[in-house]
Amino acid sequence: MSEKPWDGRFSEKTHRIVETFTASIDVDKRLYSYDIEGSIAHLKTLEKAKIISEDEAATLIQGLAVIKREIDHDRFEFADSLEDIHMHIEARLLQEVGKVAQKLHTARSRNDQVVLDVRMYLRDHVGQLLTHLQELKKVLVALAKDTIDVVMPGYTHLQPAQPVLFSHHIMSYYEMFKRDGERMTDCLKRINVMPLGCAALAGTTYPIDRHFTAELLGFPEVSANSMDSVADRDFIIEFLATAGICMVHFSRLSEELILWSSSEFGFVEIPDAFATGSSIMPQKKNPDVPELVRGKAGSVFGDLISMLTLMKSLPMAYNRDMQEDKLPLFRTVDTLTACVEVYTAMLPRLIIKENVMQAAATRGFLNATDMADYLVVQGMPFRKAHACVGKTVGFALEKGRELHELTLAELQTFSALVKEDIFEFLSIEQVINRRRSFGGTATDNVAAAIETAEQDLWPED
């Protein structure tokens, strides 16, 4: 075997600078186990088609097993001159078993080989991410269940709006991460397609059974067009988009934890094991984990833009630009996995300051809408009731009191429809539990949502 697989065409050796510039081994060596697994399946396919003998297949498979053990145990030497993981394995196989190794690449190209490796890698890691997301959802549901009686202000425009159950707020993130899991599961359908056997772009002249290869590798579907197969990176883009949406949810949750743990809010406290201090200010306790997660969202968004930009102008079929697909993919997989794991560990230890939340929920006229609803029940049109309560709020602001702290006589100066039962109507418990519309914050609703989530997450129970 010559130093390079294409040496026969060239009259001079590749320049050392070009070898360094074009090498991807530092990035794609993490694909080695998938490359070897794919090669073993390819050999079995070649044997089935009688392109190689049974003995040749066995020798080559045994040699690949030796190489995998060497890489597993850090006994494998990597060099830029061999560019990528495929060429490293093939060159080492030649050393291990001799010239029969030159038959390994029959009926395939690095073009279909690399996309197979990436699909297998991403299939496995999406499966792992789905497991991690499932654990995160369990943590959110457990937190919601444990805090079912905790009331907090709900916000719009970051201004106090109406009281809600803290559990209801937490379950909103359960819904977000549930959708992330659904998107990832759907994305897996497009990832789990077998491209091997499409060769460089046009297919192969050898009588291989691609469906047999797919069966060996656990792919339910075989790619239908050889050009699309080697040129397709949609499945990476789709995963990165899905990961980006998931990171939006992590970033939003992080932002709230950062706000809530500030002295101005004081709703929660980040556990010491997930916070850091200041090198100069002894009193500081910084929410570094949520801040870093919020910051890491930007790198995932950038990886998505990198892939979209990489692919947007490429003619069919394979182009060397596609070598750059792996770094953003690997980086996003690592980032998202780390964020899911750290939140799954941190949230069960979050310290909830329920008294502070409760007190905040009784300030800021959060029951104003309910007073308007009260007047509507008494027969007043809603727009008129809205204006009436607005004037009442203005009066209460002047007095430095909340609506429920005004006297009955004071309230009746704005409408004779107000009766003694207004005070029970405006109580925080009533305000919460009247919101019984499906998906609302009433305690029974939230408890039912938690129960439904538990049935989804622990179906065997």
Describe the structure.
The longest helix is centred in the first third of the chain and has 37 residues. This protein is mostly helical. It folds into 3 domains: 100 residues, Fumarase C, Chain B, domain 1 (Orthogonal Bundle), CATH 1.10.275; 234 residues, Fumarase/aspartase (Central domain) (Fumarase C, Chain A, domain 2), CATH 1.20.200; 98 residues, Ribonucleotide Reductase Protein R1, domain 1, CATH 1.10.40.30. The chain starts with 15 loop residues before the first helix and ends with a helix. Helix 6 runs parallel beside helix 12 and helix 10 runs antiparallel to helix 11. 60% of the residues lie in helices and 5% in strands. The protein has a two-stranded antiparallel sheet with strand order 1-2.
Features:
461 residues; Fumarase C, Chain B, domain 1; Fumarase C, Chain A, domain 2; Ribonucleotide Reductase Protein R1, domain 1; 3 domains; two-stranded antiparallel ribbon; 19 helices; 6 strands; 60% helix; elongated
